[in-house]
Design goal:
- By secondary structure, the chain is an alpha+beta fold.
- The chain has one domain: Arc Repressor Mutant, subunit A, CATH 1.10.10.
- Helix content is 37%, strand content 20%.
- The chain has 3 helices and 3 strands.
- Strands 1-3-2 form a 3-stranded antiparallel beta sheet.
- The radius of gyration is 11 Å and the shape is globular.
- The model has no long low-confidence stretch (mean pLDDT 90).
Length: 75
């Protein structure tokens, strides 16, 4: 079983959190383009493991969007 990176020391997670800071919906591709990360779903899971509340919704066949739903902000 993999362990989640800590938000305080993970530049990768901090980049994703920075995109989500505006609390607007962002698609997987949008997050990929802004952060240069391919494993967006994994990063979202790790943010959740760090206590960050991230909502997810289906935006069409095989397309997902995420937004921050947490008061806990680091960036």
């Amino acid at each position: 079983m993999r362990h989640a990176a800590q938000i305080e020391t993970s530049e990768r997670l901090q980049k994703v959190l920075e995109v989500l800071q505006d609390r607007q919906w962002h698609g997987t591709f949008d997050i990929m383009m802004q952060t240069s990360l391919c494993a967006v779903g994994s990063a979202i899971s790790e943010l959740r493991a760090n206590g960050i509340e991230v909502e997810c919704r289906c935006a069409g066949k095989g397309r997902y969007e995420y937004r921050l739903n947490s008061e806990r902000l680091f960036v």
